[in-house]
Amino acid sequence: MDNKTKTIKYFLYARKSTDEEDRQITSIADQIREMKKLAHDRGLNIIEIFEESKSAKNVGRPVFNEMLGRINKGEATGIICWKADRLARNMVDGGNLINMLQNGVLEHI
């Protein structure tokens, strides 16, 4: 592991698109457990966990937007998510993440 990875502060983001447990293969609790294990195994510094039960197809998820706002303020520069589609499934949110990566606001997903 390189030293840069150790210094990055990570937000952990877990999302499922519905509150109905039978419609989701991986629960938020399962996602968090797996991501915490990954972070522990790789020595990553998780500073906060964000949980959301909203579809990522539409723009305007409050928890996601709060997380991005706090990244823009410099509170963290990395995101850990279970799968890429947990972060964004629309062009606006995906574009915002790409822009943040290109501008160095976000260093690692």
Automatic annotation (TrEMBL):
<dbReference type="Pfam" id="PF00239">
    <property type="entry name" value="Resolvase"/>
</dbReference>
<dbReference type="GO" id="GO:0003677">
    <property type="term" value="F:DNA binding"/>
</dbReference>
<dbReference type="InterPro" id="IPR036162">
    <property type="entry name" value="Resolvase-like_N_sf"/>
</dbReference>
<dbReference type="InterPro" id="IPR050639">
    <property type="entry name" value="SSR_resolvase"/>
</dbReference>
<dbReference type="InterPro" id="IPR006119">
    <property type="entry name" value="Resolv_N"/>
</dbReference>
<feature type="domain" description="Resolvase/invertase-type recombinase catalytic">
    <location>
        <begin position="9"/>
        <end position="109"/>
    </location>
</feature>
<dbReference type="GO" id="GO:0000150">
    <property type="term" value="F:DNA strand exchange activity"/>
</dbReference>
<protein>
    <recommendedName>
        <fullName>Resolvase/invertase-type recombinase catalytic domain-containing protein</fullName>
    </recommendedName>
</protein>
